[in-house]
Write a structure and sequence with these properties.
Number of strands: 60
CATH architecture of one domain: 7 Propeller
InterPro entries: APAF1_C (IPR041452), APAF1_CARD_dom (IPR037963), Apaf_helical (IPR042197), CARD (IPR001315), DEATH-like_dom_sf (IPR011029), NB-ARC (IPR002182), P-loop_NTPase (IPR027417), Quinoprotein_ADH-like_sf (IPR011047)
Radius of gyration: 40 Å
CATH superfamily of one domain: YVTN repeat-like/Quinoprotein amine dehydrogenase
Number of helices: 33
Protein name: Apoptotic peptidase activating factor 1
Pfam families: APAF1_C, CARD, NB-ARC, WD40, WHD_APAF1
Oligomer: single chain
Organism: Gorilla gorilla gorilla (Western lowland gorilla)
GO molecular function, one term: ADP binding
Length: about 1150
C-alpha cells in the first residue's frame, strides 16, 4: 500500500473504529475479492463492534492499494460518506492502464473513475445479465458525446441500479464516450428541499478545489446553473447517473445539456425534458438459472446441490432479483431456513423477509407500497380493484370496462398510468390489450387489501350480472374466456354461495364452458369449491362431477357432442338427467331428436375419471407417489402430467424424437423417467419439466423404466428390445449394470417392494427375477400358467401379457391383456375381476399408492381411473354381439348369448331374463311370433329350437363355413342364412327344401328381407345384390365400394338404398339407375371419420327422410341434407348391428363391451 494511503488510514483510524459496522463493509470487500471468508470469520469472532472494526482496519493496513480503494467504496456505498471523505485524499494514484484486475476483471482505471464518481460496488453476490448490460451500453454509445437521456425502467426490485452501475464498469466505454468521468446521484423520492441538498452535494463533489465558488447554491435554479457550468467547463464529456427518479419535475433540475443515465419505475418521467431519449426496459425476472446461481453463491453451494425449496422460491417470486437477494442474504446467516422463507413467500408474509442492506428498502412490502402511494389520489382505488386478479392471468380491457363501468379509452388511459409506473404490465396482441400483474404485486395487493377482498369480488360479480347472462357469453366476445375461467372463482371469493351453486349446477353453463375450454377446468372447480357446493346439495355436486369425469374424453373432442343427449344417459335420479330431460322435451317440440336409454339402470360405471390428454395411442400412465398427479406418455411423442382428481394439465413436454413407450415417477416424486423408440432414456424434473439426464446405451427401442421404491439410493431400471435390462444410478453418467438372460424383447420391469429383486417380463414368454445388488438372475417363471382359463387360443399367449402391477399388500396382481384388465389373487391364482371400458388395446396398468384405484392406458387415446372396490364387486353379465330382436306392440324381446355361452331371452322393457340353453353359436334369431329361435355355428351348422317343447330341428343343407346371419321370414316357415362360404341359403325348414343364392365372390356380410319375396345382400366383394328368394334369380347387381360392404338398407318406398363400407363411408343410391345421391361421411377437423370407425349397419326410417348408421357409435342422418341429426355415444365401440322397430322409435344394439342398449325416441 502507498505510504500516503497508509498514513491516511492510520490518521483516521480512531474515527473509523468508533463509527463503522463491519458486516456489510466486509460483504463488499469479499465481493471485490480483497477479503477472504476466513478473514471475515476472524473479524466476526471479536466480542464488540469497535474491536471488530479495529481488526478489519489492521487487516487492510497489511494489504495493497486496491484493498484501500475497495474499503473506500464500501464506506460510500453503505452511507458512511463523511468517513469516506476523510480517506479521499489518500486514494492512491492509479495509472489508466488497461491491465485487468485478476479478481473482478475490471481495470484499475475503471475502478478509480467509478470510485471517484461514487458509483456503487457490485453487490456481495453478483450474477451478470449480459444482454441487458449490452443494451444499456449500446444506448449510451448512441449519445456520441451529445446531451441526451438513457432511461432504465422496471418494477421495484428488478435490479435497475445494479445494471446501471454494471453498464459503466467498462474500460472502452468510459475512455471512448465519457473521458470526463462518471458521477452517481441517488435521487429517490424527494421534496424541493431534499432535491436542493442533493444538488448542493453534487456541486461540492464536482468542485472540490472550490475554484468556481466558495458558497453553496441557495436555491434549485442557482444549483441548476452551477451544475451546468461545472459539467461544461470542469467535467466535459462526463456521464451523470441519476438513480431511482420518481418525479418528472426533479429531472428539470438536471436538464442542462448533460449526458444522463437514469433509473426509474415510471418510464414517463422523461416526458418533461428535451433532447434525444433512449429507453431500456428491465424485465421483472432474472430467469430460473440466474436466480439459482445467486442463491448458490449466497449459501456457497453448487447449483446442482441446492434443495428443492430453492427451485420453489425462484418460482414463487418469479425470479425477482430483490427477493432472491434478500432471501439469499438471510440464508447465508440461517442456512437451515429454506422451508421457513419459502412458507413466508407462499403465505405473503413479506414483512418477515427483511434484511438491512444497501437497498433503500429493507423489506419487499416497503419497496412496493411506496410505488402505490405515489399514484394520483383519483386512480388509487382503481389499483386496489386489481387485488382480485389471479397470478399469470392476462385480463382483457373489456373485463375492466365492465368492472369500472367505463368506455374502453377511459380504462386504457388509467391502466397506462399503472403500466408507466411499472405497477402493471401490458401484453399487446394486435389491437387488443391484455393486462397482468407480477406475482409479487398480486401477493402484495391481496395482503394489503385482505379486508376488502370479499367486497371487491362481489363488485365484479354485480357488474358482470349487469352486462351478461352466464350461458349467453359468445366466443367472439373479447372478455368471454375470462368469465368462463374465473366467474366461479369470483363468486366463491365473494362468498356468493347461492349464485355459485346456481352456476355450477346449470347444464347450460356446463355445456357452454366445456365447449370452449374442455371439462378439466370444470372438474377442478367442482373439487376446489366442493365445501361450498356440498352445503347446497352433496348429491347434485357428485352428479355433475361424475358426469364430467366420465364423459371428459367425449367433451374434449371435435365436433362437440350434444351435451343434452349425454345427460339423458345419466341415472334418472341424477340432477344432470333431470335438467337434460327438461331441455330435451322443449327441443323435441321444435323438431330435435333425442333418445332415452331405457335399460341403463342395469349398468354400473366402474371408472372414476376418463381423460384424453394425448392425440394418439397412450402407452403408459403412472401415479406420483403421493397419488396427486398422473404422468402419461404415448405415440404423440409427448410426456403429459395432470392432476389425478380432475385431469387438469400441469405439464406437457415434447419428450422424444419418436414414440414414448413408458414413464415413471421417482419415489420422492422429484423426477420422471421416460423411454422411447428413439433408444434414449431421459430424466425430467417433475415440477418444472426441465431435462436433467439423457442416457443413450441401449441399441434398440427402450420399452420400460421403473425407479426403486426407496429414495435413499435411487436407481432406475430399463428394459429394451435389445433383450437387455440396465440399471442406472442418477449420480453417474454411465449404466451401472447390464442384465443378460432374456432371448426376446423385455416388455416390462418392476422392483420388489424391498428393492432387493427386479422382475422383468419378456416376449420370450418368461418372467425373470434378478438380484439388484449382483445383477444375477435368481429365477425364471413361465407366465402362461396364469392364463390357462383365458378364452383366447393358446397360440396367442406369447403376445398377450403387456404389463403387470402389484397391489401394495402383494395379495393381488393386475395384468393387461388385449382390451381387458384382469385382477388376480396371488395365493389362490383365481381371477377376482375383469373390467372393460377401453375401446382398443390396453398398454399399461398401475395401482395407486394406497391401492384404492388404478390407472389403465390404451390405444383409444384415453386414460381411465378405476375404483378397485367397485371393480372387484362387479359381476355384470356381458353379452356377445350376435343378438336378435323382435318388436311386438310395446314389447321389445332380445335374444342374446352371454360371455358364459348361455342363450337368454331378455324383456327389454322390464329387464326380465329367461335362460334357455347353453350353445356355441356364431349368430342367432327369433321368429316374429316368438315361437322359435334359430342359431348357426362356426362349422356352418344351423338349428331351430321350438320354445314351447324344446324340440330341435337341424338343417341338412349345412354351410361350408361360419354362419354370420340368419333370419325367419314373416310366416316363420322359411329360414334364410348367409356365410363365409359366399352363399345364401333359403331353407323352408318345414318342407325341408333349400334354394341356394350364388353370385357373391367373397363372404356374404349380411342381408335384408324386402317386400315381394325380394332379398338385399352385401358382401366383402364390394357389391350389393337384389334376389328373388322364390326363384333364386339375381335381379340387380350394384358395385358400390372399393372395399368390403358392411351394411345396407333400402327405403320403404324402394326408391333409395344405402350402403356402408370398410372405407368408412356411407352412401345413398338411387335404386332404379344406381346413381349416387349422397355421401354421408365428411371428415371432422381431427381427420377421423364421422362414424368413429367402420359403419357396420344402416336403416332407413319408414318415411325415407332419416337414415340410421352404426359403427363406433350410433348416428341419425337427415337424408335430404346429408347432415347429422343426433349422435348416441355407447360406452364401448365396434357396434356390429342395430335393430330398429317398425315405427323407427326403438333401437337395440350391443357394443364390444357386452353392454345392451335399448334406446327410445323421446316424445
Amino acid at each position: 500500500m502507498d505510504a500516503k494511503a497508509r498514513n491516511c488510514l492510520l490518521q483516521h483510524r480512531e474515527a473509523l473504529e468508533k463509527d463503522i459496522k463491519t458486516s456489510y463493509i466486509m460483504d463488499h470487500m469479499i465481493s471485490d475479492g480483497f477479503l477472504t471468508i476466513s478473514e471475515e470469520e476472524k473479524v466476526r469472532n471479536e466480542p464488540t463492534q469497535q474491536q471488530r472494526a479495529a481488526m478489519l482496519i489492521k487487516m487492510i493496513l497489511k494489504k495493497d492499494n486496491d484493498s484501500y480503494v475497495s474499503f473506500y467504496n464500501a464506506l460510500l456505498h453503505e452511507g458512511y460518506k463523511d468517513l469516506a471523505a476523510l480517506l479521499h485524499d489518500g486514494i492512491p494514484v492509479v495509472s489508466s492502464s488497461s491491465g485487468k484486475d485478476s479478481v473482478s476483471g475490471i481495470t484499475s482505471y475503471v475502478r478509480t473513475v467509478l470510485c471517484e464518481g461514487g458509483v456503487p460496488q457490485r453487490p456481495v453476490v453478483f450474477v451478470t445479465r449480459k444482454k441487458l448490460v449490452n443494451a444499456i451500453q449500446q444506448k449510451l454509445s448512441k449519445l456520441k458525446g451529445e446531451p441526451g437521456w438513457v432511461t432504465i425502467h422496471g418494477m421495484a426490485g428488478c435490479g435497475k441500479s445494479v445494471l446501471a452501475a454494471e453498464a459503466v464498469r467498462d474500460h472502452s466505454l468510459l475512455e471512448g464516450c465519457f473521458p470526463g468521468g462518471v458521477h452517481w446521484v441517488s435521487v429517490g423520492k424527494q421534496d424541493k428541499s431534499g432535491l436542493l441538498m442533493k444538488l448542493q452535494n453534487l456541486c461540492t463533489r464536482l468542485d472540490q478545489d472550490e475554484s468556481f465558488s466558495q458558497r453553496l447554491p441557495l436555491n434549485i435554479e442557482e444549483a441548476k446553473d452551477r451544475l451546468r457550468i461545472l459539467m461544461l467547463r470542469k467535467h466535459p464529456r462526463s456521464l451523470l447517473i441519476l438513480d431511482d427518479v420518481w418525479d418528472s419535475w426533479v429531472l428539470k433540475a438536471f436538464d442542462n445539456q448533460c449526458q444522463i443515465l437514469l433509473t426509474t419505475r415510471d418510464k414517463s418521467v422523461t416526458d418533461s425534458v428535451m433532447g434525444p431519449k433512449y429507453v431500456v426496459p428491465v424485465e421483472s425476472s432474472l430467469g430460473k438459472e440466474k436466480g439459482l446461481e445467486i442463491l448458490s453463491l449466497f449459501v456457497n453451494m453448487k447449483k446442482a446441490d441446492l434443495p428443492e425449496q430453492a427451485h420453489s422460491i425462484i418460482k414463487e417470486c418469479k425470479g425477482s432479483p430483490l427477493v432472491v437477494s434478500l432471501i439469499g442474504a438471510l440464508l447465508r446467516d440461517f442456512p437451515n431456513r429454506w422451508e421457513y422463507y419459502l412458507k413466508q413467500l407462499q403465505n405473503k408474509q413479506f414483512k418477515r423477509i427483511r434484511k438491512s442492506s444497501s437497498y433503500d428498502y429493507e423489506a419487499l412490502d416497503e419497496a412496493m407500497s411506496i410505488s402505490v402511494e405515489m399514484l394520483r389520489e383519483d386512480i388509487k382505488d382503481y389499483y386496489t380493484d386489481l387485488s382480485i386478479l389471479q397470478k399469470d392471468v392476462k385480463v382483457p380491457t373489456k373485463v375492466l370496462c365492465i368492472l369500472w363501468d367505463m368506455e374502453t379509452e377511459e380504462v386504457e388511459d388509467i391502466l397506462q398510468e399503472f403500466v408507466n409506473k411499472s405497477l402493471l404490465f401490458c401484453d399487446r396482441n394486435g389491437k387488443s390489450f391484455r393486462y397482468y400483474l407480477h406475482d409479487l404485486q398480486v401477493d402484495f395487493l391481496t395482503e394489503k387489501n385482505c379486508s376488502q377482498l370479499q367486497d371487491l369480488h362481489k363488485k365484479i360479480i354485480t357488474q358482470f350480472q349487469r352486462y351478461h347472462q352466464p350461458h349467453t357469453l359468445s366466443p367472439d366476445q373479447e372478455d368471454c374466456m375470462y368469465w368462463y375461467n374465473f366467474l366461479a372463482y369470483h363468486m366463491a371469493s365473494a362468498k356468493m354461495h347461492k349464485e355459485l351453486c346456481a352456476l355450477m349446477f346449470s347444464l347450460d353453463w356446463i355445456k357452454a364452458k366445456t365447449e370452449l375450454v374442455g371439462p378439466a377446468h370444470l372438474i377442478h372447480e367442482f373439487v376446489e369449491y366442493r365445501h361450498i357446493l356440498d352445503e347446497k346439495d352433496c348429491a347434485v355436486s357428485e352428479n355433475f362431477q361424475e358426469f364430467l369425469s366420465l364423459n371428459g374424453h367425449l367433451l374434449g373432442r371435435q365436433p362437440f357432442p350434444n351435451i343434452v343427449q349425454l345427460g339423458l344417459c345419466e341415472p334418472e335420479t341424477s340432477e344432470v338427467y333431470q335438467q337434460a330431460k327438461l331441455q330435451a322435451k322443449q327441443e323435441v317440440d321444435n323438431g330435435m331428436l333425442y333418445l332415452e336409454w331405457i335399460n341403463k339402470k342395469n349398468i354400473t360405471n366402474l371408472s372414476r375419471l376418463v381423460v384424453r390428454p394425448h392425440t394418439d395411442a397412450v402407452y403408459h400412465a403412472c401415479f406420483s407417489e403421493d397419488g396427486q398427479r398422473i404422468a402419461s406418455c404415448g405415440a404423440d411423442k409427448t410426456l403429459q402430467v395432470f392432476k389425478a382428481e380432475t385431469g387438469e394439465k400441469l405439464l406437457e413436454i415434447k419428450a422424444h424424437e419418436d414414440e414414448v413407450l413408458c414413464c415413471a415417477f421417482s419415489t420422492d416424486d422429484r423426477f420422471i423417467a421416460t423411454c422411447s423408440v428413439d433408444k434414449k432414456v431421459k430424466i425430467w424434473n417433475s415440477m418444472t419439466g426441465e431435462l436433467v439426464h439423457t442416457y443413450d446405451e441401449h441399441s434398440e427401442q427402450v420399452n420400460c423404466c421403473h425407479f426403486t421404491n426407496s429414495s435413499h439410493h435411487l436407481l432406475l431400471a430399463t428394459g429394451s428390445s435389445d433383450c437387455f435390462l440396465k440399471l442406472w444410478d442418477l449420480n453417474q453418467k454411465e449404466c451401472r449394470n447390464t442384465m443378460f438372460g432374456h432371448t426376446n424383447s423385455v416388455n416390462h420391469c418392476r422392483f420388489s417392494p424391498d428393492d432387493k429383486l427386479l422382475a422383468s417380463c419378456s416376449a420370450d414368454g418368461t418372467l425373470k427375477l434378478w438380484d439388484v445388488t449382483s445383477a444375477n438372475e435368481r429365477k425364471s417363471i413361465n407366465v402362461k400358467q396364469f392364463f390357462l382359463n383365458s378364452e383366447d387360443p393358446q397360440e396367442d399367449m406369447e403376445v398377450i401379457v403387456k404389463c403387470c402391477s402389484w397391489s401394495a399388500d402383494g395379495a393381488r396382481i393386475m395384468v393387461a391383456a388385449k382390451n381387458k384388465i384382469f385382477l388376480w389373487n396371488i395365493d389362490s391364482r383365481s381371477k377376482v375381476a375383469d373390467c372393460r371400458g377401453h375401446l382398443s388395446w390396453v398398454h399399461g396398468v398401475m395401482f395407486s399408492p394406497d391401492g384404492s384405484s388404478f390407472l389403465t392406458s390404451s390405444d383409444d387415446q384415453t386414460i381411465r381411473l378405476w375404483e378397485t372396490k367397485k371393480v372387484c364387486k362387479n359381476s355384470a353379465v356381458m353379452l356377445k354381439q350376435e343378438v336378435d330382436v323382435v318388436f311386438q306392440e310395446n314389447e321389445v324381446m332380445v335374444l342374446a348369448v352371454d360371455h358364459i355361452r348361455r342363450l337368454q331371452l331378455i324383456n327389454g322393457k322390464t329387464g326380465q331374463i329367461d335362460y334357455l340353453t347353453e350353445a356355441q353359436v356364431s349368430c342367432c334369431c327369433l321368429s316374429p311370433h316368438l315361437q322359435y329361435i334359430a342359431f348357426g355355428d362356426e362349422n356352418g351348422a344351423i338349428e331351430i329350437l321350438e320354445l314351447v317343447n324344446n324340440r330341435i330341428f337341424q338343417s341338412r343343407f349345412q354351410h361350408k363355413k361360419t354362419v354370420w346371419h340368419i333370419q325367419f321370414t314373416a310366416d316363420e316357415k322359411t329360414l334364410i342364412s348367409s356365410s363365409d362360404d359366399s352363399e345364401i341359403q333359403v331353407w323352408n325348414w318345414q318342407l325341408d327344401k333349400c334354394i341356394f343364392l350364388r353370385g357373391h365372390q367373397e363372404t356374404v356380410k349380411d342381408f335384408r328381407l324386402l317386400k315381394n319375396s325380394r332379398l338385399l345382400s352385401w358382401s366383402f366383394d364390394g357389391t350389393v345384390k337384389v334376389w328373388n328368394i322364390i326363384t333364386g334369380n339375381k335381379e340387380k347387381d350394384f358395385v358400390c365400394h372399393q372395399g368390403t360392404v358392411l351394411s345396407c338398407d333400402i327405403s320403404h318406398d324402394a326408391t333409395k338404398f344405402s350402403s356402408t363400407s370398410a372405407d368408412k363411408t356411407a352412401k345413398i343410391w338411387n335404386v332404379s339407375n344406381g346413381e349416387l345421391l349422397h355421401l354421408c361421411a365428411p371428415l371432422s377437423e381431427e381427420g377421423a371419420a364421422t362414424h368413429g370407425g367402420w359403419v357396420t349397419d344402416l336403416c332407413f326410417s319408414p318415411d325415407g327422410k332419416m337414415l340410421l348408421s352404426a359403427g363406433g357409435y350410433i348416428k341419425w342422418w337427415n337424408v335430404v341434407t346429408g347432415e347429422s341429426s343426433q349422435t348416441f355415444y355407447t360406452n364401448g365401440t365396434n357396434l356390429k348391428k342395430i335393430h330398429v322397430s317398425p315405427d323407427f322409435k326403438t333401437y337395440v344394439t350391443v357394443d364390444n363391451l357386452g353392454i345392451l342398449y335399448i334406446l327410445q325416441t323421446l316424445e
